[in-house]
């Protein structure tokens, strides 16, 4: 019995090591500056708004993710990449100005709603990325600014 447990343990460890070799291409843009970026397309955007959106949303909604060391460990890695892919498909702040006026308008309302209802940034993410969690003051500032853009 003890031996069987040991074998199972070793097998699990080998599987864990094997899956580490699967590392998809990371979502990094090597410092590229986008003229289409969300924060560049509103000249009067306050710094607090810029900083909060960049810190709390850009990891999944832009072409550049600031990975933490643990983001590279499988199976978390695959989950992180899935969030980035789904997040960018819905909303990519790096490519904001390529969206039609109508789409931008819809997204502004959607962003406001996600922040107001605390659905974004996702809680599974803020659990590990504490600095991305928005406090009440930030939520107030963001929703106020977004309301003015509607
Ligand atoms: C951990 C990754 C992650 C972070 C961080 C994150 N999002 Fe998301 N977001 C997603 C994913 C995945 C989806 C699509 C699936 C869903 O709706 O849950 C999404 C969907 C959205 C949508 C819906 C888009 C639409 O078409 O209406 C909005 C708006 C949004 N996010 C805004 C934000 C804002 C604003 C922040 C920062 C305050 C943020 N997100 C942070 C992953 C993330």
Task: Throw out a few tags for this protein.
150 residues; elongated
Distance between the termini: 66 Å
- What's the SSE pattern? HHHHHH
Helix proportion range = 40-55%
Largest sheet: none
| Cofactors, ions, other ligands | heme C
Taken from the alpha-carbon principal axes, the silhouette is elongated
Tell me the number of structural domains: 1
Radius of gyration: 19 Å
Which percent band covers the strand fraction?
under 5%
On the 0 to 100 scale, the average pLDDT is 95
- Structural category is mainly alpha
What's the total helix number? Answer: 6
Please report the total strand number as a whole number.
Answer: 0
Low-confidence stretches: none
Q: Can you put this structure into words, describing what you see?
A:
The chain has 6 helices and no strands. It is mainly α and 150 residues long. It has one domain. α4 packs antiparallel against α6 (136-149). The chain starts with a helix and ends with a helix. Heme C (HEC) binds next to α2, α3 and α4. Heme C binds next to α2, α3 and α4. Pfam families: Haem_bd (PF14376). It comes from Chryseobacterium endalhagicum. Keywords: Signal.
């Amino acid at each position: 019995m003890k031996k069987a447990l040991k074998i199972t343990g070793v097998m699990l460890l080998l599987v864990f090591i094997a899956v580490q070799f699967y590392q998809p291409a990371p979502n990094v843009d090597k410092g590229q500056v986008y003229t289409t970026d969300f924060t560049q397309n509103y000249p009067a955007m306050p710094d607090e708004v810029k900083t909060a959106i960049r810190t709390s949303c850009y990891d999944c909604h832009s072409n550049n993710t600031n990975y933490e060391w643990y983001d590279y460990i499988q199976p978390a890695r695959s989950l992180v990449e899935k969030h980035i892919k789904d997040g960018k498909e819905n909303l990519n702040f790096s490519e904001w100005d390529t969206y039609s006026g109508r789409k931008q308008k819809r997204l502004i309302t959607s962003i406001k709603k996600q922040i107001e209802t605390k659905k974004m940034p996702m809680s599974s993410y803020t659990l590990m990325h504490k600095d991305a969690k928005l406090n009440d003051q930030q939520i107030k500032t963001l929703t106020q600014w977004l309301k003015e853009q509607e």
